[in-house]
Amino acid sequence: MSKVILMVTDSMGVGALPDAAKYGDAGADTFGHVLEEKKDFSAPNLVKLGIGNIQGVAWSKMACAAPIGAFGKMAEISKGKDTITGHWEIAGIYTDTPFKTYPEGFPESFIKDFEAAIGREVLGNYPASGTEIIEQLGPEHEATGKPIVYTSADSVFQIAANTDVIPLDKLYEICEAARKLLVGDVACGRVIARPYIIKDGKRIRTSDRRDYAVSPPEDTILDKIKAAGKTVYAVGKISDIFNGKGVTEAVHTSSNMDGVDKTIEAIKMNFDGFIFTNLVDFDSQYGHRRDPIGYGRCIEEFDARIPEIIDAMGEEDVLMICADHGNDPVHSGFDHTREYVPVLIYGKKVKTGTDLGIRKTFADIGATVADILGAEGTEIGESFKEVIL
Fold first, then answer.
1. Within a domain: residue 272?
2. Looking at per-residue confidence, does 188 or 98 come out higher?
3. 169, exposed or middle or buried, with CB in 10 Å at 0-12, 13-18, 19+?
4. Which whole-number Å values give the CA distances from 137 to 45, 118, 161, 193, 327, in the listed order?
5. How far is CA 327 from CA 51, 86, 218, 289, in A?
6. How far apart are CA 277 and CA 341, in angstroms?
7. 249-251 and 318-322 as β-strands: parallel, antiparallel, unpaired?
8. Is residue 98 part of a domain?
9. Shared domain check, 259 and 202
10. What is the pTM of this model?
């Protein structure tokens, strides 16, 4: 049984792309700025894999004399810097027109249609930090039952609710109603359910988040691998990002560590195919909240689990670690940043110390995954299978 395990460390960028200034992200460097801020930062396993050997990174002092893996970084050719665009490009789709964003909030005509569909008024409807807006509008929501809606620099319509006020199933129904309406002139990449509870007097978002995305416009490597008769095992929000398209099995997760646990469980299962994991805490808990120290701890926690992942792997298995965009925790605002992303690869048959250089597109990963698994490739992306194996 052979598997390719792709783990997306959501938002762990490694330096601004050449066009970052067009997005307001000149100088962004998620990983580098975490290192600067967290003075005691230590990630020995990522170092062994070669993260400090990547060309053009600001932390080359972390270079390993004899990396055990292959390493490099990848540019994004698609327009945008959001989750869907990044993951879709990894899987072989080029997005030429960015998903529509709503910096002034959603049109009043849509909000009225939405309120009519769900039978209640809403609060908010402006760009905001999710943790801040539930503090600002939580008391009114809890008193009136009106859900809180907000957006960000991404193409998202987020709906927050206290589950004691709007039960989880009802919140999901409300999100499904929004998904049906957000098409055409008010198209939106994702509707996101953001449930929270009150614990010890504090409003805390729960792990019952659910994303309602648009379907990919064409087949991705997930479809190609599935068509080849192999398993596509989605961990975390991967199935939501692809709207289930091309996925044969899926499990949701409550945290990064739960995501690692479920990935290890999948590695030990008896199937040939692709394990595609998203670890979202880097992004949701620390990048958006502009918490470089917390972000650093989050990387360290993941780093400590890498030996367990490797130990679970079989002789033919290949592990890939990458990201989908940046989210520099010292950058202005609270949104994603336009950055290169790392690619780190390990396997018993992977050539150690292989420098993959600077890849032209995230899709090179998808092309390589398909190539290794004997599936048809996609229109974009160049496989580096022959370079690493």
1. yes
2. 188
3. exposed
4. 42, 19, 10, 16, 25
5. 18, 13, 28, 10
6. 16
7. unpaired
8. no
9. no
10. 0.90
